[in-house]
Amino acid sequence: LPVEPFDLVIFGGTGDLAVRKLLPALYHRFVDGQIPASSRIIGIAREGLDDDGYRASLRKALQEGGGNAAKIEAFLGQVGYRSLDARKDDGWDAFAALIGEQPEHIRVFYLSTSPELFVDICNRLGSYGLNKGRARVVLEKPIGRDLASANQINDAVGHVFEESQTFRIDHYLGKETVQNLLALRFGNVLFEPLWNAEHIDHVQITVAETLGVGQRSAYYDRAGALRDMVQNHILQLLCMVAMEPPSSLQPDAVRDEKLKVLRSLKPIDESNAAQLTVRGQYRAGAAEGQSVPGYLDELASGKSNTETFVALKAEIANWRWAGVPFYLRTGKRLPERVSEIAVVFKAVPHSIFDPAAGVLAQNRLVLRLQPDEDIKLWLTIKHPGPGGLRLRHVPLDMSFAEAFGVQQPDAYERLLLDVVRGNPTLFMRRDEVEAAWQWADPILAAWADSGETPRPYTSGTWGPSAAVALIERDGRTWNEES
Ligand code: BG6
């Protein structure tokens, strides 16, 4: 079904995210007939382009993404461009007049720029009256670089837009498998009785990428893996695994439960960061069969203490999860692109099997987000055949592509339309962002104070060996079953 007519303005319209993710997502929704014909999509950046110049750059990206030529042209007919500087008034009058042409439209302002510009952009949107009516603002992560700067941004945005108009996007929440966690946990009777410290041994969340930092080093070098991936995406995944059942799927019912998880995270600070965290930085090596340079070689300065890998052991101090480790890891230039959540159950209390029958492995529920979405439940069964009782560990396997036969939509497709529809369930509320920084800040401070440099790892390996030691010390291993 089409959504209501809207005008969507993307600040940072020539940036990597807009060109690689946002516009292709909108194109796919257009092809499926969900974008009304009167809707407009307007890219904004400082570059002195015109509509045609902008469309040409998008045409190329959409063609490379396998779009149909005629449909691309029809879609681009709804796309325009304006050159604006958030820090100067030039052009803003004309821009406000353009938006004012369709006052009944829902207005969405997507800030896909550096967070340093969020305040200036919102102030101008406010002073030109563009925050009025059915206006919404989308803030791309990271929101700030610590709690103090996030508060400054949230306060300033809050002067112009109400909280109900503010959508803090975390695209991991739009991924099918993540939403499936809700269905799996709360739509089945099997899991919830076991979903606690009594039956779950530990949880692992891995977000591994083969890509390096490449063109994004100006942003990335000021962020690092903890700010770029853990403070937002990985903590949001952790919340979906760990939260209590919300009373409904109302936005605040879900977000209240996530917030409680974030507030229950045990602090990691200078007293324990050395035991509970590992930082790494990639060196030259290989990625997808090609040799690739190291992180420092990609920086103009050739110097940096920024981590491109982090592994850590988190804990949630509440009744459900006390004592259950959540091992989290993410990194660039790892051997494969894979994101998954592994919930590892406890061993059976007593084995009745002969040791010769084989190892009695623990049950695991593995939810894979990438590259393909699937859910596997690893069980112990008897190896078929007459030759004695031999145990085997096999998956009950639900691959989405096989089961439903379609390519799953990109997370941004769902989330962009949720903004237009005004549904904030899968967006972060201000207090969630703050609680996540409250946990991340002392880790960043402990690293800065320690004066230690991140441990080097060769591109194409699973990060520094200390990350393996972090989990093996506890008699556990990173999930390798796929
Ligand atoms: C972004 C990070 O939020 O997520 C990137 O800034 C990262 O560094 C990306 O590469 C990963 O997203 P996905 O959907 O490709 O796993």
TrEMBL record:
Keywords: Carbohydrate metabolism, Glucose metabolism, NADP, Oxidoreductase. SUPFAM superfamilies: Glyceraldehyde-3-phosphate dehydrogenase-like, C-terminal domain, NAD(P)-binding Rossmann-fold domains. Substrate binds at residues 171, 175, 209, 228, 332. It is an enzyme of class 1 (oxidoreductase). Gene3D superfamilies: Dihydrodipicolinate Reductase, domain 2 (3.30.360.10), NAD(P)-binding Rossmann-like Domain (3.40.50.720). Its EC number is 1.1.1.49. NADP(+) binds at residues 46, 141. One of its GO terms (molecular function) is glucose-6-phosphate dehydrogenase activity. Pathway: Carbohydrate degradation; pentose phosphate pathway; D-ribulose 5-phosphate from D-glucose 6-phosphate (oxidative stage): step 1/3. Belongs to the glucose-6-phosphate dehydrogenase family. NCBIfam families: zwf (TIGR00871). This is Glucose-6-phosphate 1-dehydrogenase. It comes from Dyella halodurans. The lineage of its organism: Bacteria, Pseudomonadati, Pseudomonadota, Gammaproteobacteria, Lysobacterales. The gene is zwf.
